[in-house]
Amino acid sequence: MSAHSYVEIMKLADKMKRELCGYCGSETPGATKIWICSNCESPVYAGFIGQVKMNKTHMEALEQVNGFISSGDYAKAVEEYEKLANANGDPALLYRLGLLCFSYSNNEIKQIRYDRKGFMEENARHRSLSHAMYSKGGLLLNRAAVSLEAEFKKNAMTPLIAFTLFMIYIKLDNMRSARRVLELIERRGDEYLSAYGKMVFDSQIGDYSGSVHNANELLKPDNFSINAFYYIALALFMNRKYKEAAELLDSLGKRVRNNSVDALLSEVRKAIGLI
Ligand SMILES: [Zn+2]
């Protein structure tokens, strides 16, 4: 399918309802009972906006965190999110906190400069903070995985537990555990989460044709994920189809708020020679 055809399909999202993610506060369009947040890839529940109104404090805290992220103050964002995660006790909040620490770590790396003299000390500070945040993120993801595995043993597998656990193992690059959880999701017969999980898994192991095959399963009006376009764009980029990837990402960036989309688009533009 051409990038142009994908962009046409993406327009389906404009007519869909949008739900707020209870873990990062982003809004994602969807048409199924559960879909995946376009920002942190946590499950989003249809009707969650109704619940959110009942829990105003939680959503206000997420908004505050997002304000700190937008202004580049990751230290404050992590501090505020940590309060939220400690007060709530939901292990899925630890997953999001871990991702936030990874973003903090990346942001510190970006500030390392070699082109100016007299910045060695500052570079060392950024590097050491980046390492600290990377290990903190990893520890949080591991802690979340231990809690979710324990809940998993006690209760029946809910999509939230299973899918969050799967994403944690993906982020930790623990593909053996990711595959084990994905097989459980598939056995449960959830078509949407299975296709989404396989798309992410294949992309992570570098099987981009497998990833696109599963992404194509998620482009139907009743089985839709806007994130499928990101994984298709990533596959196009890896196959050096830069112009097509840019067309898709431009269109996606207008519809979702996502650092990965921005980062990939900037890589694509660099490859085309626009930057
Ligand atoms: Zn989210």
Fold blueprint:
Layout: H1 3-10, E1 17-20, E2 27-30, E3 34-36, E4 43-45, H2 48-54, H3 56-70, H4 74-88, H5 91-110, H6 120-154, H7 159-171, H8 175-187, H9 191-204, H10 208-216, E5 219-220, E6 223-224, H11 228-238, H12 242-253, H13 259-272
Antiparallel strand pairs: 1-2, 3-4, 5-6
The chain binds zinc ion.
Q: Could you explain how this protein is built, in words?
A:
The protein is mainly alpha-helical and 275 residues long. The chain has a domain at 56-176. It is built from 13 helices and six strands. It has helices at 3-10, 48-54, 56-70, 74-88, 91-110, 120-154, 159-171, 175-187, 191-204, 208-216, 228-238, 242-253, 259-272; strands spanning 17-20, 27-30, 34-36, 43-45, 219-220, 223-224. Helix 7 (159-171) packs parallel to helix 9 (191-204) and helix 9 packs parallel to helix 11. The longest helix is centred in the middle third of the chain and has 35 residues, at 120-154. The chain is globular, with a radius of gyration of 19 Å. The model has no long low-confidence stretch (mean pLDDT 90). Bound molecules: zinc ion (ZN).
What are the main properties of this structure?
binds zinc ion; 275 residues; mainly alpha; two-stranded antiparallel ribbon; 13 helices; single chain
Summarize the structure.
This protein has 13 helices and 6 strands. It has helices at 3-10, 48-54, 56-70, 74-88, 91-110, 120-154, 159-171, 175-187, 191-204, 208-216, 228-238, 242-253, 259-272, and strands spanning 17-20, 27-30, 34-36, 43-45, 219-220, 223-224.
